[in-house]
Amino acid sequence: MTPIRFEEQKAVRDEAVKSRLVDIRKAQIEFNNMNQRYTASFDTLIYFVRNAQIPIVMKKGELTDYQLEKGLTEKIALTLTSEKEAAKFGIEDLERFRASFRRDTSFVSVLESVFGTGFPIDSIAYIPFGNGARFDMEATMYATASGIKIPLFEARAPFAIYLEGLDRQEIHNLIDARRSQEKFEGMRVGDVSAPNNNAGNWE
Q1: In the chain, where the domains are located
Q2: pLDDT digits (tens, 9 = 90+) for 6-56
Q3: Which of 63, 94, 135, 155 is deepest in the core (most CB within 10 A)?
Q4: SS3 of 26, please?
Q5: How far apart are CA 153 and CA 194, in angstroms?
Q6: Among 44, 21, 1, which residue's Cα sits nearest to residue 155?
Q7: CB environment 121-148: b (16+ within 10 A), e (fewer)
């Protein structure tokens, strides 16, 4: 029964670690969207999530196929000022069109937008079942053969940390199996050695 119990307990812990790694990925993606790089610092990442704001565009109205065929774009539609100019795009009543077609931008915190109000963002750095241990996290700029630089990050949690307290022989067997396959001995998301679209090693 030992291997069966181990697998059951491991599955619970794996799921908790996976969920936390996905949260780290979400935060890193937003950080990269705003800064064109990732961060290796949890302090920086947590501060960013708590304080940064991202634009949310509220849309009212859509352009018709006819208007699009005539070359009308959202950008042009929002700057139309004369009836004559509007008529080129099949708009007969500019005032009515402007009332029905709007794009309003508001700003919302990354914490609220991505995670929801009340999310315990400070806990994102800590490995579940890790007795206070933090995830290892790295960030780098990867240069492709053509010289293009791509930002990469990686966050990882070794089996030895978050499976601590379970059957030692089973943990040893698991780590040995991963080593023989030349795979990371734990769970991780992202990869600083090569682009992998920020995938987790369980995906």
Answers
A1: 2-54+117-190, 62-100
A2: 999 999 999 999 999 999 999 999 999 999 999 999 999 999 999 998 877
A3: 155
A4: helix
A5: 10
A6: 21
A7: beebbbbbbbeebebebbbbeeeeeeee
